[in-house]
């Protein structure tokens, strides 16, 4: 499921610390088979994650989430995560998220308003996240229009295909 | 108002041809696109998207570099079959540069003259930041972005803010780039460059060989930077002279450019350091972990597989032996580096002292060659010390410079190089 900018989501939070690396998120070197990989995502930080995560859950993390290699975080969405919110991301991970059409949002202060296991509500179109049990909220900075268009297209792949089609149409007419 | 290096770059490269500043979103024309061994995934995706033959086109057959690196010769049947697919695709599209030989793509980009000062060069692998050693703006993009860049030769960017790092002091007669990078990461955080462009400057730079600059620029991504750039000087021009005849326009920052942060480091006062398990920012002076027993010591990868990194090991091993029970593994970053190690006797000296060479490539940096078991400890001059990077989640990986690594290999434990090598 890709990121619908107008659809609020809410889910149970899995909370992680700082500098969670891509070897942890996507331990592809050790588990090149995609089905195996899904059983081991986040293992080096929280061994119980892969077996206990439920569709609709949310990842909240500290700063520098996704540091390391160019590997993307798609596997998190494949095991049911609907959004990844962090104090900050490695640029590459954020870029991967945007071009994958995933809900990946940098929300400074996020680790301070929600605890592991609590519910978090995210309303991107209103530019807000909220912890319903404490009532605490934080603003979410919206992406610039160019990036929103990319996400609306479903990510960089469909965006590229659409441009190719448009160019070949223009070439014909 | 003055501009930083990247502000100048994007002012020149953006499609609208207007002057831009940090924070602006631009669509930029690129000067080169590198794709490494995983190029097959782009072909497969293109086929899945309905292009029966593969990629519909590339933006410029001379500016696309398909570098089939990482695991050469093929480590598995699947890798061998993929190589055939990539070779065919390059032939079909008329791509002029396809390399398939032992080594690491980033080293080839520099060794073979595929990148020049002032260029915007993208790649699909995180350590693409390395070409900043030659005053290029180079960085990694996502897989889907890579398809777009290969086909259209354009890419969107938010013009990054910049951070100025002034390096001062005297460059000794052994490599210290890893210590510089780790010192910065330890002091300012393993994301001190977050989303920014790092500009290196200062009196140390003219003394630094290109090899040393490349170590720091390569690891730019490991301190979260988008770009990591050195100035273009005499050493840069000398490097390029025999490698390319394409003209280039170096980037320099204006004196009144605006920086997010300015950092100063004098290397004369810098101790040898290591990054303890399991993050790059977990840095301490080597003396603090003195006596930690090791089973493996390594020098290699796109960060430390260059001649100066390996030569120092040979120099220090003269008249000495690798400690019993230590596997000392060296992997040059490319065939030319390997050959240089052979021609100068460096390879022989290392093997004679009890070290071993593995073929150029990425094996040394991954759980591919030299797996570590639970409870074992490795000190490594490679890129990363994340948990599980060399196999078991319960192995301990310390990052250090090549000199610190070879000192540990001789002592059998982590130690200050000055204690082992009195001649320093
Ligand atoms: S040496 Fe390691 S970090 Fe460098 S390109 Fe190869 S796998 Fe990546």
What is the CATH C level class of chain A, in words?
Answer: Alpha Beta
User: Order of strands across the biggest sheet of chain A?
Assistant: 4-3-2-1-5-6-7
Largest sheet of chain A: 7 strands, mixed
Q: Rg of chain B from C-alpha positions?
A: 21 Å
Total DSSP helices of chain A: 8
Q: Can you give the mean pLDDT of chain B?
A: 97
The amount of helix of chain B comes to: 25-40%
The fraction of residues in strands of chain A falls at 15-25%
- Beta-strand portion of chain B reads 15-25%
Explain how this protein is built:
- The complex is a heterodimer of chains A (173) and B (424).
- By secondary structure, chain A is α/β, with parallel strands linked by helices.
- In chain A, 45% of the residues are buried.
- The mean pLDDT of chain A is 94.
- Chain A is built from 8 helices and 7 strands, in the order E-H-H-H-E-H-E-H-E-H-E-E-E-H-H.
- In chain A, strands 4-3-2-1-5-6-7 form a 7-stranded mixed β-sheet.
- With 424 residues, chain B is α/β, with parallel strands linked by helices.
- Chain B has 2 domains: 5-266, 2-Layer Sandwich (Aconitase, domain 3), CATH 3.30.499; 275-420, Aconitase, domain 3, CATH 3.30.499.
- Chain B is built from 14 helices and 18 strands.
- A 7-stranded mixed β-sheet of chain B has the order 13-12-18-17-14-15-16, with helices on both faces. Chain B has a 5-stranded parallel β-sheet with strand order 4-3-2-5-6, with helices on both faces. In chain B, strands 10-9-8-11 form a 4-stranded parallel β-sheet, covered by helices on one side.
- In chain B, helix 7 (210-218) links the parallel strand 9 (197-201) and strand 10.
- In chain B, helix 6 (177-188) packs parallel to helix 7, helix 10 (307-317) packs across helix 12 (346-352) and helix 10 runs parallel beside helix 13.
- The complex binds iron/sulfur cluster.
- Iron/sulfur cluster binds next to helix 9 of chain B.
């Amino acid at each position: 499921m890709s990121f619908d900018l107008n659809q609020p989501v809410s889910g149970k939070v899995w909370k992680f610390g700082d500098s969670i690396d891509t070897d942890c998120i996507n331990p592809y070197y050790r588990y090149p088979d995609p089905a195996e990989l899904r059983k081991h995502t986040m293992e080096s930080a929280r061994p119980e994650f892969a077996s206990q995560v439920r569709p609709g859950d949310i990842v909240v993390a500290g700063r520098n989430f996704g540091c390391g290699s160019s590997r993307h975080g798609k596997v998190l969405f494949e095991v049911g995560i609907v959004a990844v919110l962090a104090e900050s991301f490695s640029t590459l991970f954020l870029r991967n998220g945007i071009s994958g059409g995933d809900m990946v949002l940098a929300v400074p202060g996020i680790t301070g308003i929600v605890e592991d296991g609590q519910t978090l509500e995210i309303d991107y179109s209103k530019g807000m996240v909220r912890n319903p049990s404490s009532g605490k909220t934080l603003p979410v900075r919206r992406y610039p229009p160019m990036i929103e268009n990319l996400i609306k297209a479903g990510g960089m792949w469909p965006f590229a295909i659409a441009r190719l089609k448009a160019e070949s149409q223009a070439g014909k007419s | 108002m003055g501009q930083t290096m990247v502000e100048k770059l994007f002012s020149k490269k953006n499609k609208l041809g207007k002057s831009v500043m940090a924070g602006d979103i631009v669509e930029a024309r690129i000067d080169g696109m590198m794709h490494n061994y995983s190029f097959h995934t782009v072909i497969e995706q293109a086929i899945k998207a309905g292009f029966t033959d593969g990629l519909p086109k590339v933006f410029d057959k001379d500016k696309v570099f398909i570098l089939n690196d990482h695991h050469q010769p093929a480590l598995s049947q699947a890798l061998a079959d993929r190589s055939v697919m990539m070779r065919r695709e390059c032939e079909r599209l008329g791509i002029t540069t396809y390399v398939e030989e032992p080594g690491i793509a980033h080293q080839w980009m520099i060794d073979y003259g595929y990148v020049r000062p002032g260029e915007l060069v993208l790649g699909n692998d995180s350590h693409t930041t390395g070409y900043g050693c030659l005053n290029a703006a180079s960085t990694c993009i996502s897989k889907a972005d890579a398809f777009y860049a290969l086909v259209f030769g354009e890419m969107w960017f938010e013009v990054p803010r910049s951070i100025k790092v002034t390096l001062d002091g005297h460059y000794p007669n052994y490599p210290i780039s890893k210590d510089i990078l780790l010192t910065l990461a330890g002091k300012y955080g393993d994301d001190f460059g977050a989303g920014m462009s790092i500009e290196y400057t200062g009196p140390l730079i003219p003394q630094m060989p290109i090899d040393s600059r490349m170590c720091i620029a390569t690891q730019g991504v490991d301190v979260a930077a988008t770009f990591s750039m050195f100035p273009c000087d005499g050493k840069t021009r000398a490097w390029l002279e025999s490698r390319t005849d394409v003209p280039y326009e170096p980037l320099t920052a204006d004196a009144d450019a605006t920086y997010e942060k300015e950092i100063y480091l004098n290397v004369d006062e810098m101790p040898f350091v290591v990054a303890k398990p399991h993050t790059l920012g977990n840095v301490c002076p080597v003396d603090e972990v003195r006596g930690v027993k090791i089973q493996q010591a390594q020098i290699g990868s796109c960060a430390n597989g260059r001649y100066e990194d390996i030569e120092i090991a040979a120099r220090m091993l003269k008249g000495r032996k690798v400690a019993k029970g230590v596997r000392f593994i060296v992997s040059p970053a490319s065939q030319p580096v390997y050959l240089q190690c052979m021609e100068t006797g460096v390879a022989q000296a290392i093997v004679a002292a009890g070290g071993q060479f593995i073929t150029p490539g990425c094996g040394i940096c991954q759980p591919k060659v030299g797996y570590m078991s639970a409870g074992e400890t490795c000190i490594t001059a490679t890129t990363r010390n994340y948990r599980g990077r060399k196999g078991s989640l319960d192995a301990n990986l310390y990052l250090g410079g090549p000199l610190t690594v070879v000192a540990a290999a001789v002592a059998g434990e982590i130690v200050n190089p000055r204690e082992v090598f009195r001649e320093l």
